[in-house]
Amino acid sequence: MLKQKVAIVTGAAAGIGESVARLFSGHGAHVYLLDRDEAGCRAVADSLPSAYAFAGDVRRPQGIGAAAAAAIERHGRIDILINNAGIYPRQTFLEMSEAEWDEMQEINLKSMFHAMKAVLPHMQARRAGKIVNISSVTFHLGMAALSHYVASKGGVIGLTRSVAREMGPYNIHVNCVTPGAIKTAAEARVVTQEQVREFLAHQSLQRRLMPLDVARVCLFLSCELSDGMTGQILNVDGGWVMY
């Protein structure tokens, strides 16, 4: 599906980002991985046939800029951007510090501003491109102790829709995925087993969702099968929210 396509994936050292990188590589893409976990990012890249690791903090434009420049220099193109990097520490609103709020917005939302700024001029010149932004089903739910996270993910949805409007005339597709409760190592550090059982009780599909479930939807949104779609929000939540 993605033979010879060039994709940049942020937050690619583990979880959803790693799964996207592996799936895209398996479908023939050249994959550029960006993550602040340099060792993890390099380990994933080294295990794939045409993958390149870049260490960087998504809060700063230099990392994504370096990956974009390398992709254009080596392959002459950037076809796909998967904006996946994000964090989700829990904190009640009244106990939340301004620094915690700012960190969440910078990593989960402003990073997508930097990433799209890095690739869109090139995509615009080629009049082609696919961008997939990872938001969260929590935007549709609202969840306690995650107001900073939910706000950032709502911003991702708004950003997706507005940029899709602007870039449509250039044949650039900008869509969004809202994952539900995904079983990852990062989830295990902040979510209890009791909370996991609660998530499952709300889902229509009674199984844990895996990073591959999200990666497959990213693949769909990054190939010709979704050529008639832009500005759309796709839930991958096991049937938790239906709208």
Key descriptive features of the protein:
single chain; 243 residues; alpha/beta; seven-stranded parallel sheet; 7 strands; 16% strand
What do you see in this structure?
The chain is α/β, with parallel strands linked by helices. The protein has helices spanning 15-26, 38-46, 61-75, 98-126, 138-141, 147-167, 185-188, 193-202, 211-222; strands at 6-10, 30-35, 51-55, 80-83, 129-134, 172-179, 233-236. It has a seven-stranded parallel beta sheet, sandwiched between helices.
Quick synopsis:
By secondary structure, this protein is an alpha/beta fold.
Main beta-sheet annotation: 7 strands, parallel
Number of strands: 7
Q: How are the strands ordered across the major sheet?
A: 3-2-1-4-5-6-7
| Overall geometry | globular
Helix content, binned percent: 40-55%
Regions with pLDDT < 50 over 5+ consecutive residues?
none
The chain-level structural class is alpha/beta
In round numbers, the mean pLDDT is: 97
SSE string: EHEHEHEHEHHEHHHE
| Annotation field: number of helices | 9
